């Protein structure tokens, strides 16, 4: 009986993990279609960074955990300078002006972008919800990493010390082009 329970539990975990992985991989295409605009007004989909890891941090100046992690993102970017990693500090349209004023006042120089559309499409919301499901919400900040093939490596809610060795290694590895 114990063996049967263990086998059923293992099958459930494996099927749940496979379903989550499938949602995550399908989600990479949806997230790659998000249109971002740089400070000079140039539009591009996230997918234009194909071939590189893309560290996307969704933040706002009113969010204390967002502000708390900014210095570690600056240090992370410096540690990975010249490597196959792009950084996208993604502001939402309703916060863009205040976010840019805050960044200028604080002297925090990162590659800032604004999401073109004010709202997430239903498909984008669904992807973000499904890959953050263990937390039952999308946190502020939310950070996700796309690898060089455009696949979602992780989605992390809440403030992190991004320049910690474990994150640096994971992000650096995501920039290594995959064979095949």
Core attributes:
180 residues, alpha/beta, Glutaredoxin, seven-stranded mixed beta sheet, 43% helix, globular, disordered N terminus
What features would you describe in this structure?
With 180 residues, the protein is of the alpha/beta class. It has a single domain (19-174), classed as Glutaredoxin (3-Layer(aba) Sandwich), CATH 3.40.30.10. The protein is built from 5 helices and 7 strands, in the order αβββαβαβαββα. The chain has helices at residues 2-32, 64-79, 96-106, 122-131, 165-174, and strands spanning 35-38, 43-45, 53-58, 85-91, 112-115, 142-146, 152-157. It has a 7-stranded mixed beta sheet, sandwiched between helices. A hairpin with a 5-residue loop joins strand 6 (142-146) and strand 7. Helix 1 runs antiparallel to helix 4. Mean pLDDT is 76; it is low at 1-27.
Q: What is the total number of structural domains?
A: 1
Strand order of the largest sheet: 2-1-5-4-3-6-7
Uncertain regions: pLDDT < 50 for 5+ in a row? Answer: 1-27
Summarize the main sheet: 7 strands, mixed
The CATH topology name reads Glutaredoxin
Query: DSSP helix count?
Result: 5
Structural class: alpha/beta
Helical amount? 40-55%
Report the strand count.
Answer: 7
CATH superfamily: Glutaredoxin
- Rg over alpha carbons: 17 Å
Question: What is the CATH class name?
Answer: Alpha Beta
Strand content: 15-25%
Indicate the mean pLDDT: 76
The CATH architecture comes to 3-Layer(aba) Sandwich
């Amino acid at each position: 009986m114990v063996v049967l329970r263990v086998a059923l539990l293992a099958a459930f975990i494996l099927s749940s993990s496979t379903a989550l992985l499938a949602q995550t991989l399908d989600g990479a295409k949806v997230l790659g279609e998000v249109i971002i605009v740089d400070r000079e007004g140039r539009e591009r989909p996230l997918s234009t960074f194909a071939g590189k890891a893309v560290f996307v941090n969704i933040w706002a100046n009113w969010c204390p955990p967002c502000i708390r992690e900014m210095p570690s993102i600056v240090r992370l970017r410096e540690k990975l300078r010249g490597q196959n990693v792009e950084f996208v500090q993604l502001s939402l349209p309703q916060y863009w002006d205040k976010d840019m004023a805050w960044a200028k006042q604080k002297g925090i120089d990162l590659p800032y972008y604004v999401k073109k559309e004010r709202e997430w499409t239903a498909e984008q919301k669904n992807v973000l919800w499904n890959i953050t499901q263990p937390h039952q919400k999308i946190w502020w900040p939310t950070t996700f990493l796309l690898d060089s093939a455009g696949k979602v490596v992780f989605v992390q809610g809440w403030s992190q010390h991004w320049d910690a060795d474990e994150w640096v290694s994971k992000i650096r590895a995501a920039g290594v082009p995959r064979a095949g």
